[in-house]
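[Meeting: bench + compute handoff]

Bench side (C.D.) handed over the final construct sequence. Compute side (W.E.) agreed to return the predicted structure before the next meeting so the bench team could plan truncations. Sequence as handed over:
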Amino acid sequence: MEDKNRNIAFEYGSPEFYKSLKELTRQIHMVAEGDYSQESVQLGELSDAFNEMVYKLKEKETKLKEELSDARNHAEVTEGYNELLVKLLSRKNEWLLVVDMGSREIIYCNKKDKKGAVDESYCKMCKNRLSFQSELLKWDEKEQYKVWETEDDKGNTYYRITSFLIEWRERNAGVHIVVDITDEKRMTSSLTSKAYHDAGTGIKNRLFFEEYMEMILRDKQKATLCYLDLDGLKYVNDKFGHLEGDIYIQYFVELIRGSFRSGDTFARIGGDEFCIVLTGAIKELIERKMEELLHEFQTGEFREYRCSFSYGVVEITGNEDEASLKELLHEADEIMYECKKRNKEKYPELIRG
């Protein structure tokens, strides 16, 4: 059954009509002030339109309140995150630089205290990194997130930078966390150096030799490989002790190392086994060189025993289809063995078996 109030019809200009219209006007003012509890029931379709308008306004207000609440929560979370980030970095050596993505100006630096003063030692360092700072200011926000490394102009100090976008105090900003990784770089370099060097002699080790030869063969480069075996190391160790054996090895290493270029690869691949790798197919030249060095080593006055080494030289032309390091070493070892037989005839007490 229809609501009787919705069917009341007032004659235009009648006292009842003006009374209802006056009441509707009052309700409209109440709605304008934010009171959405108003409802009209006496003016038919006009009341229906009014009530629909009030309902939609109330619905929109509710939605706006929810959005405002979400925005405030987001702002609180963001601000809390920013404060946490600042606190975490305030006691460390890292730099936290915030750049306004619109003006490209640094709007925050964690090296400033609450009064805005800046630690002069850090400022001085920053002034020496003007080119470094320019990279931060130019950072493209389209990247969203980036981890990169750079160094100062002199190459003495290295930095790792983590860059990302963030809302910083209601501003679109790029945050750059800058870490001095100089010690880390030096440590890595030191570890790499240790990984590729023989601890006893300081020359390259087998790992380096194998990786280097892999590159030579893969790229089909021309090279010359000389395989050396230090004669009589076991004899020296047994008769004079391992300390003397170490001296014997070092004497041999210094002779060979001092006779070639620093760019040539000289590696210890075993206890008494060594290899030299030289660029270019120069087998005959190296054979003559090794013959001279062997004579010098054997005839020189050294301790209480004879010194000797055996060698075998092979050439890598770069045209080998299926050459492998194992095959090259086997070929050089066979040539070296012929040299060892000749040395054994001269010094049977030094070379046994």
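W.E. noted at the follow-up: The CA atoms of residues 159 and 181 lie 5 Å apart. C.D. will use this when planning the next construct.
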